[in-house]
Amino acid sequence: MEKFEKLHGIAAPMPLVNIDTDMIIPKVFLKSIQRTGFGKNLFDEMRFNRDGTEIEDFVLNKPQYRNAEILVAGDNFGCGSSREHAPWAIADFGIKCIISTSFADIFFNNSFKNGILPIVLPQEQVDILMADAEKGENARMTVDLEAQEITTSDGEVIKFEVDAFKKHCLLNGLDDIGLTLEKQDSIKTFEEQAAQARPWV
Amino acid sequence: MSPKTLYDKIWDAHVAHEAEDGTCLLYIDRHLVHEVTSPQAFEGLRMAGRKVHAPDKTIAVPDHNVPTTLDRADPATMTEESRIQVEALDKNAKEFGVHYYPVSDIRQGIVHIVGPENGWTLPGMTVVCGDSHTATHGAFGALAHGIGTSEVEHVLATQTLIQKKSKNMKVEVTGKLRPGVTPKDVTLAIIGETGTGGGTGYVIEYCGEVFRDMSMEGRMTVCNMAIEGGARAGLVAPDETTFAYVNGRTHAPKGAQWEAALNWWKTLYTDEGAHFDKVVTIRGEDIEPVVTWGTSPEDVLPITGVVPAPEDFEGGKVEAARRSLEYMGLTPGQKLTDIEIDTVFIGSCTNGRIEDMRAVAEVVKGKKIKDGIRAMIVPGSGLVRAQAEEEGLAAIFEEAGFEWRLAGCSMCLAMNPDQLSEHERCAATSNRNFEGRQGYKGRTHLVSPAMAAAAALTGKLTDVRELI
Questions:
Q1: Domain map (residue ranges) of chain A
Q2: Which among A33, A76, A114 has CB closest to B39?
Q3: How large is the ipTM?
Q4: Which of residues 100-129 of A touch B (CB under 8 A)?
Q5: For chain B, does the N or the C end have fewer beta carbons within 10 angstroms?
Q6: Chain A residue with minimum CA distance to B65
Q7: How many Cβ pairs closer than 8 A exist between chain A and B?
Q8: Cα of B306 vs its chain's centroid, Å
Q9: What is the CATH number of domain A6-197?
Q10: If phi over 0 gives left and psi between -120 and 50 gives alpha, with beta otherwise, what is residue B311?
């Protein structure tokens, strides 16, 4: 997995609440058996007309946001399906950080597995960052995972919380499976005990 | 010992390792697999030279892509991409040696119907699947939730998940339900109350007389939509209803093992005085048959209501409601029962079980669906289909004018050929009314099976209480 350390980039505002996984990547694009190539269909039905032409007023089609690497989004981002195609599409498009007042649980976990940092902040702070993102491409934010700080284009610093284990994995680009396999003995011991306690499982 | 919730008890019984910061390796008893979210995970194993850690605890079945028309044995009924996904599952199941129900097997169906039906899902288990509606299995008092593909690969390789414990939330529905009010109305009414983010960070336990009185099918409908309320999982404590459902199923324990299992299952309840971080209480008598008007499952109103205006809401929901109304082609103030529909979809992991079939038959028996309405019933599994045929329900459906299909996810998420066209309006027993969910620009109203049946007869959203 790609490491996430410090990001300095354009933030795009998407204030709509409850942006769901069907909006992020409609199911017609879930038929690939690969992990890559979903970025071109990110937000497909919001971003493109049926004939493939771009919908001009969609934020990521605006010239100043086409290269956005950060999303500042409305509440409950990523609700709905467990499809990891949603963070795959977001990462493939080039977005590495999403900021909102809350995220759906499965989407939140899936993001970390794909080098994306989801940040939860109180409404007032999301409002500040949303206003900053509205300024367009000259308003670049800095997200520093090590320091757990976001710096706005005006130099205002906002601290954020992140789970220590998830931070460690993201900073170092660690593969979860490799880490878990280091604990194989614990799993084996558990299985032996469970086989005694609940042999019917 | 301090009193524990049901969630605490199941969690504690499955922690294989706990780090200092509280990050746990949670052992997984059952891993259900389908064709859409697993190919990349199996490919990951192959590339790393890894095996499936516990193939005997892994059950695979294709459901999302498979056509539900009677001619589906013909490969031409599937798009090339769908066929590749289903074939990949065939191949992966064989290569990695996991339990498998291919499309041709009568036990094939929607993964969340197949698991319980065959006795794979048991009380007190941990159950995961690369599908958010895994919450369904919580009806058995099993800790069950959806995971992403990276986690599917992690479970395949290690039979564990890296987890931190969620908070405990209690949703209590007291008293009795009124006639015409079903488990689907209960679960939608709860989401209407809590919002789609109300359960975020929590595992819900559904408590109260309404759930105690409910069948296993009904409890599955309720837990299925826990995810729509944002919760990681929903639980109902196992009781005699649960044990009676499980007893005798193919993969349920037998003999002495049954007795041992039963002894443990009977300890799976929330202790007196256990702490819940959040409590929501609803009176069963206050719940009416409901319908969704918008594009979020929280957009719930009693069928007797009217379409709301964006100004009825606050904050970010004002713009979301405006967008929903435009998408749905509705006008504020319009009576919900005046909304005409084009299509009725009955099925899905929410409402594709035998009890749902019976509920529909009760409403449509001896009647005809309205001219011009497209109406399909898609049973949740081949076994549900067979039982419905045996009980004479299928004949009632066909006489009324419904299409009677083979099992699959079908128009719930429209990955197979069952889709809405632009602006086609559907009364659906499924779980999501998101934009584009049932087809590009398709319009979905979520309802119970009885309400869907009523809509099929009248061609409009209808209060089923007027027909029974």
A1: 6-197
A2: A33
A3: 0.93
A4: 102-106, 109-110, 113-114
A5: N
A6: A31
A7: 189
A8: 27
A9: 3.20.19.10
A10: alpha
